Amino acid sequence: MISGKRKMQYIKRALHKTMIQKWKLIDSMRPLSEDVLLNLRSVFRTEFTYNSNAIEGNSLTLRETQLVIEEGQTIRGKSLREIYEARNHPEAIEYVSALAEEKRGLTEHDILTLHQMIMKDVMRRGEIGRYRKGEVRIRGAKHIPPPAYEVPRLMEEFVRTVNDNPDDYTTSELAAIVLHRFVYIHPFYDGNGRIARLLTNLILMKKRYFPIIIPKSDRSKYLKYLALADRQNYIPLVNFVAQYVIKHLDMVLNAIEQKPEERKLSLKEAAKLSSTSANYLRVLANKGLIPATKEGRNWVIPKSEIVAYVRRHRRTKQKITH
Ligand SMILES: Nc1ncnc2c1ncn2[C@@H]1O[C@H](COP(=O)(O)OP(=O)(O)OP(=O)(O)O)[C@@H](O)[C@H]1O
Ligand SMILES: [Mg+2]
Questions:
Q1: What is the pLDDT of residues 237-279, one digit of tens each?
Q2: Of 16, 5, 2, 1, whose CA–CA distance to 173 is shortest?
Q3: 138 lines ligand 1 (CB under 6 A)
């Protein structure tokens, strides 16, 4: 069973409930079709890169971002810096996706690696992949990040928070708090927001949620909620992030629905998908308990039917706390 025993500190109950329901529905349909996943990944790659860079002031359009990422084009009238910012992002997204699949926790080395990836050819060499050595201000914000000498200790603590969730936050709460904590510390001279948004997605993906995109159109809300979080009011930021988590669960549900899986599977293939045996499915088929049909001497069943069967019968094996 899935247990949801974390105490909810900032998230609205109704939002949390909706989120878990959608998560469970999707989880019951796993493994998701490769087509759906590939399509989602490629849309995400371009749209995340576009929005995450645009929030920071990059002027490339979505289409231009796509041309840079997918065709390796340079764009007339745009600075190399802006083009490199787009070019650099996919590698960092891949790195975070791979990390989400691994059993090990996040390390400071991972964070420095992400900075190297994101800021390649964008910042001065000596500043890439290294914490700042001097003070910084965040344009437009009242908050002044902590002095540079405190950054190493704060980052050690930050990584522990990501890995151990000592305050027992729910997943979307932790995702939002980590996002804020990172930009609050501001460990680098530049690129902090972009790395923070990647780490938010790491936390979500580790729990089999989908990565979220904070769109450029929500920039002013995003900045306002970060400023409220500076004063320990995390409620708006947490619920803002949660709302995007739900939006992305909905996107996946839509993508699944738009792709009816009418391919017919042999009972052997169907057994793999449903964690039962082909013999057991054959018994069910003979009794007319599953909508299998005969092709020659062999039983076959539409993939959508076996997915529905799994959805009805599957018990989630792995414990996930939301
Ligand atoms: N009040 C605030 N408290 C904490 N962080 C903030 C606040 N206001 C803004 N920020 C974050 O700091 C970012 C700017 O930092 P920096 O330029 O290092 O990161 P970036 O990746 O280049 O920017 P961005 O987040 O805009 O993509 C803002 O965009 C935002 O993410
Ligand atoms: Mg910046």
A1: 999 999 999 999 999 999 888 765 567 889 998 888 888 899 9
A2: 16
A3: yes
**294 membership: H or E segment, kind and range:** strand 293-295
Q: What is 13-257's CATH number?
A: 1.10.3290.10
The CA 53 to ligand 2 mean position distance, Å, reads 9
Reply yes or no on whether 143 is catalytic. no
Report which protein residue has its CA nearest ligand 1's atom 25: 193
Task: Give the type of residue at 94.
Answer: E
In whole angstroms, give the CA distance from residue 194 to residue 134. Answer: 20
d(CA 301, CA 316): 23
Active-site annotation holder among 186, 248, 313, 322: 186
- Whose tokens are 């704060």? That residue is 154
Domain range list for the chain: 13-257, 264-313
Nearest residue (by CA) to ligand 1, atom 1, is: 227
